[in-house]
Amino acid sequence: PAxxxxxxxxxxxxxxxxxxGLENHPQVVAELATSRELWGTGPTVLERVRDPYQLFPALxxxxxxxxxxxxxxxxxxxxxxxxxxxxxxGGGLGIRFAGMGEPPSADHVxxxxxxxxxxxxxxxxxTLLGVxxxxxxxxWLNAKPFVYCGSIGPVEPPTELVNRPAxxxxxxxxxxxxxxxxxxxxxxxxxxxxxxxxxASVEVVExxxxxxxxxxxxxxx
Length: 221
Fold this sequence. Notes:
This protein is an alpha+beta fold and 221 residues long. The protein has helices at 4-8, 26-35, 43-49, 52-61, 159-163, 167-170, 200-209, 213-220, and strands at 82-86, 96-97, 108-112, 117-124, 127-136, 148-152, 177-185, 188-195.
């Protein structure tokens, strides 16, 4: 990732929009933005929106149920089911079930495991563009547990998503296309992560609807 700003100097003039896991490298996004117009979420916002200790209280304030988090520096509880999640990752890489009493790590968070159907909700600004069901850790795709291996969509958005505004995320400063990863658990939408950039789920919505999601968002803005 550190090579991208230098490589970008070879490309024709124009704006830049990042994808992949580049949200884990806000310093690279900042460098790209010094020489090009950035279409998407800025580097200072990335630090906050990818921090569950900052994001989850905002989502809870908007009325969502959110997973419990173990406080920083505390071991994994001896009861319940918990995930050990990297603070900087993508596509489910590095996620696993935590062991009871497992010691803390500065690079990981212990997050409550929520059982249900994993889903991804694509937004352009505050506009809900589509919803897909995520395939995670599917043995028939030879995927490791929790690793993203595809999407199926579009699916009908749960009523809770239609009626609940996305303003809590926009208040963070998230811009452009982004998606909310969540779990549909007993008809309750439980957010687990924000991907503040163009994602694989966007492509599913685009292929299913025949609309270029970024152009739809720009037309509305």
